[in-house]
Specification:
The chain is of the alpha+beta class. 34% of the residues lie in helices and 23% in strands. It is built from 9 helices and 12 strands. The chain has helices at 4-18, 23-31, 45-59, 85-102, 122-131, 203-206, 232-237, 264-272, 283-298; strands at 63-66, 72-75, 133-139, 148-152, 156-160, 163-168, 178-181, 185-194, 221-228, 245-249, 253-260, 277-281. It has a 4-stranded antiparallel beta sheet, covered by helices on one side. A 3-stranded antiparallel beta sheet has the order 4-3-8. Strand 3 and strand 4 (148-152) form a beta hairpin. The chain is globular, with a radius of gyration of 24 Å. The chain starts with a helix and ends in a 5-residue tail after the last helix.
């Protein structure tokens, strides 16, 4: 049985692909979709409008009706679907998911990186974010043996290294955003308590000087990294951080500069590149990376 979210993604993708389509044609395609509608029921006007309203409320995607063009429906360009990173990602995901549902024989030939469980909480959190409603969830951290309950103001969502996270202040830490991994959430429910999203809060600014999911209030450092071994082209095409700039470039290496906080995630990333990445400065950060690599090398010394 198809879920509500699967039906809504099908509607968005189908309308987007046809540019404009009537409810009659939508219903006909709907009836022919065995995986989505195994009983072959028609798409009623009431059901369509219910999904339409929910799609706009949760995802911000507006489905409009052109009454001058035979009452055909289309995705409103004013919602800036193509210009918005979130909506663009959402529609790409929707299109791929819809195609896979209709071409199940190709599923084994299209591979994705696995994202742990937690995605089932996204619709609840997005809905609460739009309505400025607090959520209550049961959480089981990697660092604690027991589960505990959190009342959270969901400010924003972020995906990093194959994990979804929700960020916002909790009742125990008012005004201080905390980060929670969705795959560690056991259960979640909306509450009847409202919160006010701060007008001056900027999610991009919150992580501007960070690498990965760690947030730091420390002053960012000017970091220089020498990249060689053929990795310089990859680093140019897929920057390590938005502040990445080229300081020096030759046929054999490239020196990049960054402005960010040297957190644990960044150290792991650099160490994982092996001899291809060398931290040139600052000296203190170079030393921290060297200590990390030395500790790892000790594990592989011959006994």
């Amino acid at each position: 049985m198809a879920t509500t979210i699967e039906k809504q993604t099908w509607l968005v993708d189908t309308i987007q692909r046809h540019r404009k389509i009537s409810l009659k044609d939508l219903s006909r395609i709907w009836q022919d979709n065995d995986s989505l509608n195994p009983e072959g029921c028609e798409l009623s006007e009431r059901t369509f409008h219910r999904h339409r309203e929910e799609i706009e409320r949760i995802f911000g995607i507006s489905i409009k009706c052109d009454k001058r063009d035979m009452n055909r429906y289309y995705i409103d360009e004013d919602t800036d679907v193509e210009g918005s990173e979130v909506r663009s990602w959402m529609l790409s995901t929707i299109a791929i998911d819809n195609m896979l549902n209709q071409s199940r024989d190709l599923c084994g030939r299209i591979q994705f990186e696995n994202i742990p469980s937690g995605q089932q909480h996204l619709s609840t959190l997005i809905s609460c974010m739009r309505d400025s409603v607090k959520v209550e969830f049961t959480y089981h951290s990697f660092w604690r043996n027991e589960e505990y309950t959190i009342m959270l103001e969901p400010y924003f969502l972020k995906v990093s290294k194959q994990r979804w996270y929700v960020i916002g202040p909790s009742e125990k830490h008012p005004g201080e955003p905390r980060i929670y991994a969705l795959d560690r959430v056991i259960s979640i429910r909306p509450t009847d308590k409202k919160f006010r999203y701060p007008k001056k809060f900027d999610p991009d600014e919150y992580f501007r000087n960070s690498y990965g999911i760690f947030h730091s209030d420390d002053k960012p450092l000017d970091i220089k990294i020498k990249v060689s071994g053929g990795q310089q082209k990859y680093t140019k095409s897929l920057p390590l951080h938005h502040s990445q700039r080229i300081v020096e470039e030759t046929d054999k290496y490239c020196i990049f500069s960054y402005r960010m906080c040297p957190d644990y995630d960044l150290i792991q990333e650099i160490a994982g590149k092996g001899a291809a990445y060398e931290v040139l400065e600052p000296a203190e950060f170079r030393s921290r990376v060297a200590d990390y690599i030395t500790a790892a090398a000790k594990l592989y010394k011959k006994k």
